[in-house]
Amino acid sequence: MIQFERFKLPNGLRVLVHRDTSTPMAVLNVMYDVGARDEDPGKTGFAHLFEHLMFGGSVHIENYDEPLQMAGGENNAYTTNDLTNYYIQLPAENIETAFWLESDRMLSLGFSEKSLDVQRKVVCEEFKEHYINKPYGDAWHKMRELAYEVHPYRWMTIGKELSHVEKAKLEDVKDFFFKFYRPVNAILVVAGNVTVEQVKQLSEKWFGDIPSGEKYNRHLPEEPLQKKAKRQEIKADVPLDALYKSWHISSRLDKKYYAMDLITDILSGGGSSRLFHSLVKEKKLFSNIECYHFGSIDNGLLAIEGKLVKGIKMEEAEKAVDEELEKIKKDPVAEAELEKVKNKTESTIAFEDMSVMTRANSLAFYELLGDAGMMNTELEKYTAVTTQDILDESKNIFREENSNTLYYYSNN
Amino acid sequence: MIKEAKKGIDRTNAPKIVDAIDLDLRLKPYQKYILRNGVEVYAIDAGAEEVMMVEWVYYAGDWYEEKNLVAAATNFMLKNGTTTKTAFQINEHFEYYGAYLNRASYNETSTITLHTLTKYIGQLLPVVREMITDSVFPEEELTIYKKIMQQRLSVNLMKCDFVAHRFIDAYLYGEQHPYGRFSRFEDYEALTREQLVAFYNKYYRQGKFILFVAGKLPKNLEELLNQNFGDLSNKKIETVDFLTKPADEKKQRIINDPNGVQGAIRIARSFPNRHHPDFLKAQVLNSLFGGFFGSRLMANIREDKGYTYGIHSYIQNHIRETAWMVSTEAGRDVCEAAIKEVYHEMEVLRNELVDDEELLLVRNYMMGSILGDLDGPFQVIARWKNIILNGLDEKYFYDSINTIRTITAEDIKQLAEKYFQPEEFYELVVV
Which of A187, A246, B95, B263 could pair covalently with A270 via S-S, beta carbons 3.0-4.6 A apart? Predict the structure, then answer.
């Protein structure tokens, strides 16, 4: 049970406090309700580029990192298709430094040309390192474009193409900041060796007079129901053929989420999982195979990807995957198999909750979803899933017309 | 327009801080017990969650193999079948209880690591025992393993950073040395079941091991460990010496992918191990040079020039001889410029004293980072494990804290003069 207290500043900033006196550290986590899905299709990669610019100095503080390092702190940030999250960990005695730094960059960035110029290049190198100069690095660019017609999940957080990032202007940066990075669109979580009183006082002092901003109301184009299977083939300089398949699934808040999540664990994720056992070990068609989803807030994708054993035909490999999916659609899973993936979930949650940083991050995420208290009811929701739910949800997801298939062929 | 904040808060001055160097940093002591067979158990009983980990550290790393990859393959296949259980059944057993059983093979040691909810530990230990005493290494499992590893290798060989990582170690230590060896298709091909069984018999069944446990530990843990592992072999292992054979040519350029858009850069020199008097001071110089986000290399090559997404320097975590390494991936056309800047930063450190403020920043950063790293029982036992396997004791930890607090700018300059000599460095770019 993760205890927390919650209050709201008059400017709309939501603040959560999670106290843990067993650690000498404190964590300050700021989550902004903006991700790659909120980008203009002609300016993709912006939310992530922006995350880099947040370290380029704010209105009163030229250098963000130095004072934090001086206070013995470390920080990082990440951007997803749904949100952007910034976090600091430092000795609890120095928590005010974190308030000072985060509040100043929420007040306003420094908007320096130099910072924009350098971070454009850094992000381009990141793009190359992860998506161009890496075998199969573009597979998900292709898959997202194949699977989504209109929803902004069509593109990756890094952006659709290098040129979008290269063309970013300081004007765009300012607009983006004042639209999204406002107290009313943010959630602040302070965790670790702190008191609620202390956090109240420091929040009011440092964040209290930042102009609230306008609440951002999201109106994203809704992805129409897919009625026909989509397929694509590509060839690239990779050593092995690879198969990628995806299916549309419902949103993070849908009650079907839990069965869907357990299905991915039944199919993959361990040496006794179905796809690994059947297709890697017994039939020897794949050298690896995985099933996963992204935990997206809007309607997402469940994916299966695997690399084929050399000499195996793509059609044969795909047929074997389909046969496994037919099984999970036809016969209810055994109680023990369901119990296994539930136990795994229980243990994953317990291990994650060991870190105060992860707890702070999870509280912010669930608050963004609507209520941080959901963090404490997740396990019950997994426990309640029945073998019938798994059967129903498998039938619902693994429909031919709901599928997207990418044959990623090796040139060799 | 930027609206100024209300008067009264001074946003231009940083709030007062407690310098992290003044924090009272302590490494939580371990409890130690000895099993009936003399096996040492190091334990950290702490944490709020009902979870724990057990790690078996065997002296069964690359150092002991006669043929390349035998140690790693043996370690991997501990989970692939015993006389009573198939690989599937072993996996199913651990997974049923939501536990994670991992194994890993290193230069000197090979490990088995179990993470589990504390309540299930009793159901899991007997199966680990079975893996250690009764593995059968099925021929078919080995065939699959070889094929999968070869395929994985073929993918990795397309990555410039993977190729650079292999070659730089080979230059530093020689391809025959355990620290410099790397995997090849033909080495996988040559693996036989007999080699694995022989290695298993010698280094696991009749080998030597140490146990590390941490988390919320059950009261009867010592008894459980004795029951399951107190009668296993714990013999002294004969260790041979390998001489390093560093490459003659120091500057290397390799084209791995004619169309690659980035190059992997490694710049490295040999360096003594943790027992050397310069080692702890070198850690401070390393932080300043390229050891964290605020380092000179990051500030110059990423934050000023934008040549790379990240650049890091570190001293390899080796028990015997080691190396000081700079590592990055940079745009193909700026690789040479990035290398020039690395040497430039070495030169500045050789020629100029670091100022008080930057040195204080590095000290505070390092202290804060250690404090953060020690948060939680798994982190504490990991630090102890490193100390113990390197033949050190808690004095090493407190000496390192003391070095961070007291090292002077002159010490750092002297160290840079001694070690940052460009002609001593191997230099490699793989495009």
Answer: B95
Distances from the Cα of B384 to the Cαs of B38, B218, B256, B381, B396, in angstroms? 19, 20, 40, 5, 10
Distance from A204 to chain B by nearest Cα, in Å?
Answer: 11
Average pLDDT, integer, range A9-28: 95
Residues 6+ apart with CB under 8 A from B393: B387
Q: What is the pLDDT of residues A224-273, one digit of tens each?
A: 999 999 999 999 999 999 999 999 999 999 999 999 999 999 999 899 99
Instruction: Round to whole Å and give the CA distance between B327 and B228.
Output: 44
For the ranges A202-216, A275-289, B1-15, the lowest mean pLDDT is seen at B1-15
- Residues of chain B positioned with their CB less than 8 A from the CB of A307: 151, 155
Separation of alpha carbons A148 and A142, rounded Å: 10
Question: At B331, which helix (H) or strand (E)?
Answer: strand B322-331
Is there a contact between B364 and A70 if contact means CB atoms under 8 Å apart?
A: yes
What's the average model confidence in pLDDT over B269-278? 96
Locate B150 and state its tokens. 């070869």
Structural tokens at position B115? 């993470």
- The first and second tokens of residue A84, run together, are 């952007």
Contacts of B53 (CB under 8 A, 6+ apart): B113, B114, B115, B116, B213, B214, B215, B378, B381
ipTM of this model?
0.90
Tokens 């393993």 sit at which residue?
B145
Whether B284 and B362 have beta carbons less than 8 Å apart is answered as yes
pLDDT tens-digit profile of B165-203? 999 999 999 999 999 999 999 999 999 999 999 999 999
Closest CA to A74 of B291, B306, B369, B313: B369
Subunit contact B261:A307, Cβ cutoff 8 A: no
Instruction: Identify the residue among A354, A358, A410 best suited for mutation to test binding to B, counting B beta carbons within 10 A and taking the highest.
Output: A354
- CA-to-CA separations, A180 to A120, A330, B428, in angstroms, rounded: 20, 46, 44
The minimal CB distance from A133 to the residues B91, B260, B302 is found for B260
Chain-chain contact of A350 with B302 (C-beta, under 8 angstroms): no
Inter-chain residue contact B308 with A122, CB threshold 8 Å = yes
The pLDDT-based confidence of B2 (bands split at 50, 70, 90) is very low
Burial class (CB in 10 A: 0-12, 13-18, 19+), A129: buried
The answer to whether B268 touches B324, Cβ cutoff 8 Å, is yes
pLDDT in tens, B320-378: 999 999 999 999 999 999 999 999 999 999 999 999 999 999 999 999 999 988 888 99
pTM higher than the cut 0.90: yes
> pLDDT tens digits for A315-364?
999 999 999 999 999 999 999 999 999 999 999 999 998 889 999 999 99
Are B211 and B112 spatial neighbours (Cβ–Cβ below 8 Å)?
A: no
Asked whether the beta carbons of residue A70 and residue B95 sit closer than 8 angstroms, the reply is no
Distances in whole angstroms, Cα of residue A161 to Cα of each of A193, A197, B189, B337: 43, 47, 41, 26
Nearest-Cα distance to chain A for B431, in Å, is: 10
Which is it for strands B251-254 and B426-430: parallel, antiparallel or unpaired? Answer: parallel
Chain A residues closer than 8 Å to B361 by CB: 66, 69-70
Contact B147, A232 (CB under 8 A): no
Enumerate residues 6+ apart whose C-beta is below 8 A from A271.
A277, B79, B87, B88, B90, B91, B92, B95
Q: Which residues of A touch B260 (CB under 8 A)?
A: 133
Residue A242: closest CA among chain B residues belongs to which residue? Answer: B155
Distance between B237 CA and the closest CA of chain A, angstroms: 32
- The residues near B46 (Cβ < 8 Å, ≥ 6 apart) are B28, B214, B215, B216, B376, B377, B380
Q: Which residue of B has its CA nearest to A343?
A: B98
| B144, B158, B371 member nearest A284 (Cβ) | B144
